[in-house]
Design goal:
Length: 214
Amino acid sequence: MTYSVKEIYYTLQGEGAQTGRPAVFLRFAGCNLWSGREQHRAEAVCRFCDTDFVGTDGPGGGKFDSARALADAVAAKWPQDAGAHNAYVVCTGGEPLLQLDTAAVEALHASGFEIAVESNGTLAAPAGIDWLCISPKGGAALKQCSGHELKLVYPQQEAEAQPERFVNLAFGRFCLQPCDDAELAANTRAAIEYCLEHPQWQLSLQTHKLIGID
């Protein structure tokens, strides 16, 4: 399989339960809920996405003709003097499960990485993922109904994207993340109030934006 990757870079995880953890971000190109092009946003299933996942022209991006080549590119971004100690890769997109397969999971594990995935949940995840974060989108049927973390962008208007819809699913953590649009301040207040009223949920902020890192 050839893997199409927008970018690979080293940073801190900025959101969710693993906030602050050093990680290599492996951003796959492509998504099944939006083309990634502004002219198609109004018709997209997910209209609030804030990520560029189009093409393979980002830092470290490209086409990788094997799982081993992909894993080697990820390993090259991890600090060499750290060895494999606590090595962590976040597979994201776009939608990473369009491409992340068993071969890639095995190759990344063989390189010493703990593997996290950030997915919209519309595709079943392969076995072997160490931290699976699902972020449901209104208007898209949820196929992956279990994992380590459910991170819901809030608010969403669709009935199937309301927080109460998810609380009985098999996730270890439930995070509410304010939607970063023109109403961010109001969305943040609403998310805070919801978490206070429903303590099963915890607030997730996009700290990488707050401190100015990628």
